[in-house]
Design goal:
Layout: E1 11-14, H1 19-30, E2 35-39, E3 47-48, E4 51-54, H2 57-64, E5 68-71, H3 75-87, E6 92-95, H4 102-112
Parallel strand pairs: 1-2, 1-5, 2-4, 5-6
Antiparallel strand pairs: 3-4
Helix pairs in contact: 3-4
Amino acid sequence: MSILLNKNTKVLIQGMTGRIGSFHAQEMVDYGTNLVAGVTPGKGGTKHLDRPIFNTVKDAVNETGAEACIIFVPAAAAADSIMEAADAGIKYCVSITDGIPAHDMMKVKRYMLRYKKKIK
């Protein structure tokens, strides 16, 4: 039984139109994840795997009500993607990106202090 997420949780993918994002998006759809949108800057207004693509996480959240995201972006963009998700109101964020510089993650940790911690 899931504590934080369930089959109804609306999920978006940052980097959905890339090679890795596309692969995992298809796997998620096949396994029944409620994938509502993707975010790829510059590709907003298009569709990928029958899901709308937005330029920003904020636009995607406003249109779809997404509350969770998974990030498939290069290491150089991962920290900004995490902070963008937090600013857009995403409650749960997963990044599988390998090789994110430690200094970037220190910035993310400090940035996240502005948001109240929820204990569940």
